[in-house]
Write a structure and sequence with these properties.
It comes from Callithrix jacchus (White-tufted-ear marmoset). GO terms for molecular function: zinc ion binding. Plays a role in vesicle-mediated protein trafficking to lysosomal compartments including the endocytic membrane transport pathways. Belongs to the VPS41 family. It is found in: Endosome membrane; Late endosome membrane; Early endosome membrane; Lysosome membrane. The protein has a four-stranded antiparallel beta sheet, with no helix packed on it. A four-stranded antiparallel beta sheet has the order 5-6-7-8, with no helix packed on it. The chain starts with a strand and ends with a strand. β17 and β18 form a beta hairpin. It is elongated and about 170 Å long. It is built from 27 helices and 28 strands. By secondary structure, it is an alpha+beta fold.
Amino acid sequence: MGVCSEDGKVRNFFWANINLMELICCKVQVFGLYSGEEFHETFDCPIKIIAVHPHFVRSSCKQFVTGGKKLLLFERSWMNRWKSAVLHEGEGNIRSVKWRGHLIAWANNMGVKIFDIISKQRITNVPRDDISLRPDMYPCSLCWKDNVTLIIGWGTSVKICSVKERHASEMRDLPSRYVEIVSQFETEFYISGLAPLCDQLVVLSYVKEISEKTEREYCARPRLDIIQPLSETCEEISSDALTVRGFQENECRDYHLEYSEGESLFYIVSPRDVVVAKERDQDDHIDWLLEKKKYEEALMAAEISQKNIKRHKILDIGLAYINHLVERGDYDIAARKCQKILGKNAALWEYEVYKFKEIGQLKAISPYLPRGDPVLKPLIYEMILHEFLESDYEGFATLIREWPGDLYNNSVIVQAVRDHLKKDTQNKTLLKTLAELYTYDKNYGNALEIYLTLRHKDVFQLIHKHNLFSSIKDKIVLLMDFDSEKAVDMLLDNEDKISIKKVVEELEDRPELQHVYLHKLFKRDHHKGQRYHEKQISLYAEYDRPNLLPFLRDSTHCPLEKALEICQQRNFVEETVYLLSRMGNSRSALKMIMEELHDVDKAIEFAKEQDDGELWEDLILYSIDKPPFITGLLNNIGTHVDPILLIHRIKEGMEIPNLRDSLVKILQDYNLQILLREGCKKILVADSLSLLKKMHRTQMKGVLVDEENICESCLSPILPSDAAKPFSVVVFHCRHMFHKECLPMPSMNSAAQFCNICTAKNRGPGSAILEMKT
């Protein structure tokens, strides 16, 4: 059995060795691995345990303790001799000793003691809990977490003890330090060893289980557990069963756990094996994930800890993941992962594409190929396009739309499409795709021709985007047939590129399309297409009569005689009536309304618009023998013509529908007119009186006359420079001022004087309001 101690500064090791001699006497040797220093002592009783001072390498710390029936402290004196002292005896064999700083902890049959090497005092005694367990079969396990924290494991119990300084007022005859148990809990298995791991514990557990067949207890494999201590319990973090030789015959005392604090190494010692355990790092975790074929988790773990992993590369794990997915048949997932794993490595991308080609899965990887950074060889993209062209026209068309045209050799793909079109000349998908390829190749003429053949909606976008107006001058009819609304808007928006004259000429054989174009032109500007207004009369009459009358009303350039001729030929009464009235023949227009339309309301409305007494007379004469017309006139004539003129002409005995209601309405209209006149008169009188008063108040105000005012006639200052000199000034209500001698003499008919300036401007006479004399 041996124990080593390491000094962190000088890295000098000492080894203590115990040689058993026939179980009666033993020899203890302490010697340096890197120095000639040596100590040996022979004992006449068995030695169970030995511990050297943590800083044994220092000359002031040449100390070690041995445990058997007694706990002996050996230290080298100033004469380089070793002397011993008994620290404890009389409580059975001492089987465990741990030394940390100035504190020594040991365990015997009764419990655990701690000795302060500085004060030479024992500071505590922690009694054994389960006295039913034999201490030689279930020995105590001790470990120091730090200089003041001792962890005790005995049987199934774990105690965490903290060494604290005693307050000076409490000392008296007590040690300067005391121990407080800060945590205590039970475990499921017997404890063979303890070691600290940060704020957790590593526990070597001795496990006994009951056989299901024989129902007898047997020894199972020992376990190495990591637990998180709590105040009264613990939480298991991880647990591993250890396979050691002969574990079936081993007892709890046959296992030991030691650890190297600086290297985080743990040594599990059994009668036949020594197992070294170390804290698992991220590389170990990734190894385990890869072994379990959990590639996605391994990749994620590597990405999270990429600065800490040493043996693995993210790319290697990613490639292994892709291969695993391919082998499993998850081609779509494998292709999608390529984006993330391969990144911008063009060579790896090309390698993976060829792998997918070998297994016939180029379609799976096509949506994820890089299109910008990096750009692969054109052959790669062409290979995938050919694959789609052979089996999936829609997929091929999608790739052509989504991929930039500079990724592949456009002429090669165009030729391939044309070859396929020889077999299926009317395939719309291939034709549309060929048009897009022509567009990429700037062969806009061929592309436009295909789009027009297909009547594709993108034809207008193509024309606008690439300014193809010169190419469509002879294709205007095709564009109008496809979508007349969009075509007309485009042509009108680009008159500078395709003139109105050219469009009208191209549409000469298609008058219905010509009308659509000219109608929209007229709606935009009534004057731009004035040269075609005569033509438009016939076009409206033929294809769009509802808009003929609005056109005739809004146009100032159409020949009225031609329009009247066309409307009369087609018997368009409303339009003819409008043209007759516009040409001044209102009586003929009214006659047509009454004779052709038989619409008294329209006739009355027409007469109101013209506001001509003769028209009202004609209307009354025409209506006098038609009772329905008389009713209409009685209901509407009151505000324009004296109803008495109509009533006197009605023949006696004629039955007129709703005569009473019509007469009542006439009387009501008359009363309403009287009320309106009276109301207006009152308002007029009130306003006149108010304004008169306002004018009077204004005229009664004084007018400031000073040196800045001038005579409006001679333009000299109105006031003389010599104030003592007599003068005479005339000021009018319009604020114009004159020297009296500058005004003309009043006429013989009227003595009133008027402002010459205002009279000349026809602003009304302004009589003099003030005459100043001095």
